[in-house]
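User: Fold this; tokens only.

Assistant: Input:
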Amino acid sequence: MNRLLLSLFFLFIFSFLLPAQSGLGESNLAYIEANGISGITHNEISTEGILDSSIWTSTTNAPNNIGRVVAGVIGEYLYVFTGQNTTTQAVAYHIPTKVWISPTPCTGPGYNAGFCVARGELYKLSGSGSVSVFEKFTPGNSGTGTWTVLPAPGSSFLQAQNSMVFDGDNFIYVSSADYATPTSSFFARYDIQNSTWTTLSGSPHPKRYAGMAAIGGKIYLIGGLIPAGVDPKVCQVYDPSTSTWSIIAPALEDLNFTKWSVSADGTYIWLIGSGGGYSSYPLSNKVYYYDPAANTWHLESQLPVDRGLALGLFMTGHQKLFFGGGNVGGAGTAFTNTCWEGTGGIYVPVEFTSFNAIADINTVTLQWSTATEVNNKGFEIEKQETKSDKWISIGFVSGRGTSTEVNSYTFTENNVAPGKYIYRLKQIDYDGSYSYSKEIEVDVNGIPVEFALYQNYPNPFNPSTVISFSIPKDEHVTLNVFDILGNEITTLINEPKQAGVHQVGFNGQGLVSGVYFYKLQSGEFTQVKKFILSK
């Protein structure tokens, strides 16, 4: 009973002292922010304003608890290092298979470090337990990799309260603030190519443990812990071209520990929970996004659980969100290992509706269609010999940017030597993120080895499309089109054909929009495929 009364007494005292932050000494406040105490409250924000909603589904639990970690997505892996309860943690989440593996631990274990991904490497700066260490992780095969220690910045940035972000070009920007009265802010950038640091003018509104993001060459400072008298909704942007700071639209709720919950997808800035996790700093189960072009914030969805100091980020190249770990139950160090993925919402990925490969004599033609595209720069065509594990780039086809209409593409490789090959598409966004299509195997030997009816291109179509098929020997061929009730619409082919690959056009002019079928018959071979006329 005495312990309970004592705990309630301290909770009562801290609930009045922490928001103002003026009644605590610098060392006490720094310790509390870095380590946490119990007693969480919760922001109540109406969900009526949700415009689009990501669908959150459980995924594989992390091997260890996640809280105050270093993390970043590189290729197919989400890497997670360090943590308040597991300072030597080193795990990686394989996004396609949802399996966790164990990469190489960092040189400086601890927690609260600043972090960002730049040029395919994960950078880590300072933090509790590794104050003077600046290092980077270079991925190897199957999620493993190596760590390299780099020149560290000045002592003002070697603090647990720092944050960092890559500008998408050659610089990593770092922001921090101290506990003095008045509070000072610090800002610098690291030249990746030359391994040098340059000190810049700090933000006019000092923030500790702030979230950072970069879009369009500008650096955004979202949320963070504040000195007395500063609006907790204030968010800022730095323009390197003019070396100036500006205020952007305020957040839709008070923000605090956003260091682990802010990321960007090249178009929007995501805020996946606002941090919180102990004392009077409230946690939030809301997902927001900021649109820099319109300078507006929007409530996007609601998280499946309430967690403080959790990891929330956009998984670059995979068109979905991640939310994992965090504390629960009112204790600042009661971290968990449960994880979720968020899909859909405002983020409409490049959605493939078809991807086909047609082999002719020394020629391979790739055909694909998309139903939607967002931020799509284009498609890099990659090829691999079946006896090799090396992919090579053989061409590029520009995308349509952002589109909700059906788009069709084609690419032809000529002078292909006989053999078996595998093709895939590397879809690349304007921010450099990417994802892969399925893989297609093609046998190029001059004459087809089997009967095949290919998906028409484009599909859906309006009003014309092309149907391709291959036959391994001279044979009589019929190709008919039917409506959804099985009524024959037309006969496209009814004649002998030589062995090889053949194409025929179909025009749906005069037909109503809907689903139709085409049927190939050649000897004992019969195959039917569906196609869609969309006017």
